[in-house]
Design brief:
The chain is α+β, with helices and mostly antiparallel strands and 454 residues long. Helix content is 44%, strand content 11%. The chain folds into three domains: 2-60, no CATH class; 88-377, Hypothetical protein af1432 (Orthogonal Bundle); 382-453, Roll (SH3 type barrels). It is built from 18 helices and 13 strands. Strand 9 and strand 10 (393-398) form a beta hairpin. Helix 13 runs antiparallel to helix 14 (295-303). The longest helix has 29 residues, at 147-175. The chain is globular.
């Protein structure tokens, strides 16, 4: 018996076998479709699932089509070998056109909007700093600002979103309150912010001190930005993108009910502590269930540590049984964790993290989601400092559509006649990327550039 979440079904969905409300109540008999009116009625009656011995035959949701039905459309340049100074990786291993699984569809830019509810519109009152920073993004000054100024503005707004997440967590910890409407509206704004400023926002990386002092906040913010970026690449519609963002912001909420020393620890956890820590997905699920969040968001929080092979937790689900949001947050959360320095481990470079996910040892992650991350950020992700074949140092500032191996970079310490940073397209010859700098090399480069400017 197959189970389908009502919240994920669209009007005029056809099934090839009878659709049941329970073991005895027949809901739809083929060839009739499940109508929008029936879906609305089921939601009003508080039903969350339907069952069938068969499966969807046509009119599948966009997400299901993206993950199951289309063929690869990857350009030839993207299939070339990915070569570095210290390592060689063949992208064709991950971008096989004969694979039945869909590779990443062409990106589009949907206009996110707040989740529609039956409640009357209630203005959300935010702190002045947050509102002011948000206005800056839409203000004329953003359009006229140079690259450096735009980055500074985006950093300011990014910090305000982090402050919002911190206030939200604090509010829940002290009052056990979560405002669904406010969170959804804020995430809707965040989706627009990410979509319009991807090349800047992906360059932001909180400091070592900030990450360890406010781990839950920095991790939740960064993971959510990555999840939304993946969702945009997968052409998710606005409502689904907002739900994904809400699940991303709240995916570690269950940790608040655990002793702080577990997630603020400066050393590896003991086996007993790990077992206790692994309960945070269930705790988060229960919190959202009690607060009446949509089931799809609840499952995204519950499933974000599940793995395609069934080796994850808490339910040891495999492949198709893992929720869509859970699959996406799993990749975003893992990428963020791999690149995050902690007291007891050094962070890997974003290149190393991308390679680790692309190798996908034991096929832990959904290949399509990993590919979406690759095409959103490139093999050398936005923000990474790299060495070029011509001996110069550069920072990756944008992706090249269809060619994740050769992103756009900004040459460090060089400006044009107007004083603007020099930006170039990398290639396979004199502007080939040799490798990414490690954390110390990047820090030394930044310090040296600051000294020169003084």
């Amino acid at each position: 018996m197959n189970t389908y979440e009502i919240s994920e079904l669209k009007p005029n969905t056809y099934f090839n076998k009878p659709l049941m409300l329970d073991k005895s109540f027949l809901l739809v008999m083929p060839p009739s479709p499940l109508t929008g009116e029936q879906i609305r009625a089921l939601k009003e009656w508080n039903f969350t699932q339907v069952y069938t011995e068969g499966k969807i035959s046509i009119a599948q949701t966009a997400e299901a089509e993206a993950f199951q039905n289309k063929k690869s459309a990857v350009s030839d340049p993207a299939k070339k070998a990915v070569l570095g100074k210290t390592e060689s990786v063949d992208l064709s291993e991950y971008l096989d056109e004969s694979d039945d699984r869909l590779t990443v569809p062409p990106p589009q830019k949907p206009e996110p909007k707040p989740t529609v509810t039956e409640e009357p519109e209630i203005p959300v009152k935010k702190e002045n700093a947050f509102a002011l920073a948000q206005e800056n993004i839409n203000h004329k000054i953003m359009a006229e600002a140079d690259d450096k100024k735009k980055f500074e503005i985006v950093q300011a707004v990014y910090k305000e979103y982090m402050a919002y997440i911190n206030a939200m967590f604090t509010r829940y910890a002290t009052h056990k309150e979560l405002n669904i409407k406010e969170i959804s509206e804020t995430v809707g704004e965040l989706c627009t912010f990410v979509r319009e400023n991807t090349r800047y926002i992906l360059r932001i990386s909180p400091s070592y001190e900030a990450r360890n002092k406010n781990f839950l906040v920095t991790h939740s913010m960064r993971s959510t930005v990555l999840a939304i970026t993946i969702g945009l690449q997968l052409n998710m519609n606005a409502d689904k993108l907002i739900e994904l963002g809400v699940a991303g912001i709240l995916h570690e909420l269950g940790q608040i009910r655990l002793p702080p020393q577990l997630y603020m620890n400066d050393k590896p956890l003991t086996p007993m502590e790990k077992s206790q820590m692994m309960t945070h997905t269930i705790l988060g699920f229960n919190i959202l269930k009690e607060a009446n969040f949509p089931l799809s968001i609840q499952l995204g929080v519950l499933d974000h540590h599940e793995r395609e092979t069934g080796t994850g937790y808490p339910r040891h689900l495999t492949g198709e049984n893992i929720s869509l949001y859970g699959k996406i947050i799993a990749v975003a959360c893992s990428f963020e964790a791999i690149t995050t320095p902690r007291h007891y481990k050094e962070a890997k470079t974003t290149y190393e993290a991308m390679i680790e996910l692309l190798r996908n040892e034991n096929h832990q992650y959904d290949d399509t989601v990993v590919k979406a991350l690759l095409y959103s950020m490139s093999l050398y992700p936005i923000g990474a400092y790299v060495y070029l074949a011509n001996g110069k140092a550069a920072q990756v500032t944008d992706v090249t559509p269809g060619n994740p191996r050769n992103p756009v970079v900004q040459i460090m310490g060089e400006e044009d006649a107007d004083g603007n940073p020099i930006t170039v397209q990398t290639n396979e010859t004199n502007l080939k990327i040799l490798r990414q700098m490690n954390e110390k090399e990047s820090a030394d480069l930044i310090a040296a550039l600051k000294t020169i400017k003084k």
